[in-house]
Amino acid sequence: MSPNLSRRDLIRLAGAAAAAPVLSACAGAPPAPSAAAPGTFTVYWNAGHDYAAYRKVIAEFEQANKVKVNLQKYQWPDLRTRLLADFASGTVPDLVEEPGGWVQEFAISGNARSLQDFVDRDGGAMGFPADWQPVTVERNSYQGKVYGVQLHLTCNTLLYNKAMLREAGLEPPSTWEEFLAAARKLTKDGVYGVALNQDHTYVWPWLIQAGVTPYDPATGEIMGPREAAVEALQFQADLVHKHKVAPVPVSSTDYSGPQKLFSAGRAAMILTGPWDLDPIRKTSPDLELGVAPPLKHRTRATQAAGVSLFVPAKAARPELSWDFVKRVTAAEVERAATAETGMLMPRKSWAELSEVRSDPVTKVFADALAIAQDPSQQVRLTGQLGKWDEQLKVMYQQVLIQNQPAAEALAAFTRTAEGFLK
Amino acid sequence: MSVRTPRTLAGRYARTAYLFLLPAILFFAAFFYLPIGNVVATSLRTGPQADQWAGLGNYADALGDPAVRHSFLVTVAFAVMVVIGSIVLGLALALALDQPLRGRVVFRVLLLVPYLTSVAIVGLLWRNILDPELGVLNRVLAGLGLPGQQWLNTAPLLTIACVTLWQSVGYTMVLFLAGLQGIPETYHEAARIDGADAWRRFWRITLPLLAPTTLFVSVMAVISGLQAFGQAYIITNGGPGDATDLSVFHIFNVAFRTRDFGYSSAQSVLLLVVIVAFTLVQLRAGRRGEVTY
Predict the structure, then answer these.
(1) Do A261 and B133 touch (CB under 8 A)?
(2) Residues B143 and B277 in one domain
(3) A97 pLDDT band (50/70/90 cuts)?
(4) Edge-to-edge strand list for the sheet holding A289-292
(5) How many domains would you assign to chain B?
(6) Residues of chain A positioned with their CB less than 8 A from the CB of B130
(7) Searching chain A, which residue's CA lies closest to the CA of residue B126?
(8) Could you tell me the pTM of the whole model?
(9) Which phi and psi (to 5°) does residue A268 adopt?
(10) Domain for residue B155, yes or no?
């Protein structure tokens, strides 16, 4: 660099460097290629759900409709960024897979198309909504109209290393007290009794089991009863910091940390969903995997989760989009996807399939679906789920990772949430 | 319409210069200045579609928002660490590799490689290295009989600042090397004849003559520090809690997670004002320290 760089040069250089990236970051994405190009059917899909069963559906769909499916795969945060940019530009895909919660959000904002006319016409033939678990219809509806169709219905339960529990002379724990006792006994020689997830969505089974209602729109109460919420949060923090039966989680966008520890034989138990079954089986084929029902505290319950499909309001060919929805949610496709990956499905008839009932892993998950609740429903309907999730993430990590007293962190969270839920 | 030819030589030079500059001007206008204008316009609106007029309401909200204040303070602390580290480490490495050492070119290249690597790759790499349970770094420490560390939990901001320095210090070193090689050797020879030792020559000759380089490095480090995003996005997700909620990451979340484009745009404009103010202050202060021999 020249030592005689002029002030004007520096100002010019610094000003350009300062202004451009910061501001352009918020200016929306560059114009996307037309998602609705004739002959091309664009679908936004989660990168982890590219199953052979769905590829077969795509091939049949392409042949039947004489289109080429452009399956664009994303991680959830990237999919959201792309989708919001698309909404702003007006160039949208034909169909979107979403991680749960977006359907109502985008129905409220006018970005999702109501599917009620299609449901009225074809619902009987495809078994919708009669054959879908009620929670999956409720979380995809807004003001009495269906805006999305559930593709997978998942829940969180207890996965354990059978060999470790057998060596310790333990049965799978059923209650929080038994869980703590087992974790204490299993923690030794570089192995943790349990590994907890840093991702805030993993807090819900604990809160539901403690009897907590996240938000009651009738009374405006947040996280009530408060003592139960504090107890649930503090119980998890104590597993890490007081009893030292779990490693301190690390904040990250990656939620596979506990699964990796479990697969590596460094944790005896984890609380997770069916999405971790495949990685565990692939990375640790010799691990004796056990699955137990969700834990019980005041009640035995867990969180209903899973992905849905929706059609953007500006999608050019909604009839074609609906045809894809019907094909990919067909009973035989559900069956094939479960056989391929172990994924759980939203149809009531799926839960009664002989292969589901006879599989020791899938059966436990399928039974748990009956006690699965959707905790974010009431918050979603306020249109403030994004802010809620941001604050919840901060609060959960302050308690779980930074060991801030649960009562203090929860009080700060509810104060903030009261502000934006008014 | 006929195009008038400038009559003077200077006019003709200027026209040629503008013609050469035209592609760059068009590029910047299309991809930077128009989006900037769009952001300023969006900052005056509100709602999920940013379609309701808000006037200066977003700016007023941002100035009174404790989360915005917190993320700004976190960002300033991060930028201070990066600026000081960039100057001290970059200069130290440049001084070391300015010596007639064998293999110095190889070292220079090795130090520059991280700078050429994407922040996403660097972030993923260090996220895995720093994992307290499965990461390489704690295994190395264990091999040395030292206790493992919770790098990203006990000092998350310092840790991501160190990762940033690891990535960027090679570039800073190259800038300082260029500055060092621009200092005439005759100054050092004269000082040696006058009996000045190496330490004195460094303080009285090298450092003052590196002032323009130091100013440039510090200005660029402040700008990149205040604009840091990938480190929080890839390595820590802003956590634990909000410990690494850097300003641009915060703005990104307001836009794409809470879906408030008007509010995020207002915060972007405020951050721009802060960066420009910092830069001008630095330039003014830096120019006072310049010397010529």
Answers:
(1) yes
(2) yes
(3) very high
(4) A192-195, A267-272, A157-161, A289-292
(5) 2
(6) 250
(7) A252
(8) 0.87
(9) -85, -25
(10) yes
What pLDDT, on the 0 to 100 scale, is given for residue B293? 66
Backbone angles phi, psi at A168, to 5 degrees: -85, 0
Instruction: Note which residues in 186-215 of chain A have CB less than 8 A from chain B.
Output: 198
The parent domain of residue B142 ranges over 61-288
Q: How close A365 gets to chain B, by Cα (Å)?
A: 29
Choose the closest CB to A17 out of B28, B223, B269.
B223
pLDDT at A182 > cutoff 90: yes
Is A1 in the B-facing interface, judged by CB distances under 8 Å? yes
Cβ–Cβ gap B39/A23 under 8 Å: yes
pLDDT-derived band at A349 (thresholds 50, 70, 90) equals very high
* Shortest CA distance from B250: residue in chain A: A390
Q: What angle do CA A171, A291, A206 make, to 5 degrees?
A: 90
Interface touch A2/B182, C-beta < 8 Å: yes
The answer to whether residue B95 sits within a structural domain is yes
Residue B42 lies in a domain: no
Contact A40, A95 (CB under 8 A): no
- Whether A24 sits inside 8 A of B31 (CB atoms) is yes
Reported ipTM: 0.86
Nearest to A18 among B175, B183, B275 (CB): B275
Which tokens hold the place of B50?
């940013």
pLDDT tens-place string over residues B237-272 = 999 999 999 999 999 999 999 899 999 999 999 999
Residue of B nearest to A258 (CA): B133
Which residues in chain B have their CB less than 8 angstroms from residue A257's CB? 131, 133
> Which residues on A lie below 8 Å from B287 (Cβ)?
7
User: Please, which residues bridge with residue A189 across strands?
Assistant: none
Nearest CA in chain A to B28: A20
Q: Given A20, A28, A398, which is nearest B241 (Cβ)?
A: A398
Res. A3: pLDDT tops 80: no
Q: CATH number, domain at B221?
A: 1.10.3720.10
Give contacts of A 228-257 with B, CB under 8 A.
247-248, 250-254, 257
Residues B231, B162 share a domain: yes
- Tell me: pLDDT of A23 over 80: no
Task: Answer yes or no: do B3 and B127 share one domain.
Answer: no
Estimate to the nearest angstrom the gap between the alpha carbon of A392 and the chain centroid: 15
Which residues from chain A sit within 8 angstroms of residue B234, using beta carbons? 253
Q: A40-153+306-351 in CATH: which number?
A: 3.40.190.10
Least reliable range by pLDDT among A383-387, A406-410, B289-293: B289-293
Supply the DSSP string of A291-360, one letter for each residue: EEPPPBSSSB-EEEE--EEE-BTT-S-HHHHHHHHHHHT-HHHHHHHHHHH----SBHHHHT-HHHHH-H
Cross-chain residue pair A17–B287, CB shorter than 8 Å: no
Kindly state whether residues B164 and B76 are assigned to the same domain. Answer: yes
At A101, the amino acid letter reads G
Per residue in A209-255, pLDDT (tens digit) is 999 999 999 999 999 999 999 999 999 999 999 999 999 999 988 88
Tens-digit pLDDT profile for residues B179-202: 999 999 999 999 999 999 999 999
The stretch A116-141 carries a mean pLDDT of 96
Fold observed for domain A155-304+376-421: D-Maltodextrin-Binding Protein; domain 2 (3.40.190)
- CB contacts, 8 Å: A17 with chain B: 220, 223-224
Q: Would you call A401 and B241 a contact, using CB atoms and an 8 Å cutoff?
A: yes
A40-153+306-351 and A155-304+376-421: identical CATH topology: yes
On whether residue B48 sits in a domain, the answer given is no
Residue B230 has pLDDT above 60, yes or no: yes
User: What is the Cα–Cα distance from A378 to A381, expressed in whole angstroms?
Assistant: 5
Same domain, B15 and B129: no
Pair B232, B127: CB distance under 8 Å: no
Domain assignments of chain A as residue spans, ordered by start: 40-153+306-351, 155-304+376-421
Same domain for B237 and B170: yes
Structure tokens at A377: 């429903």
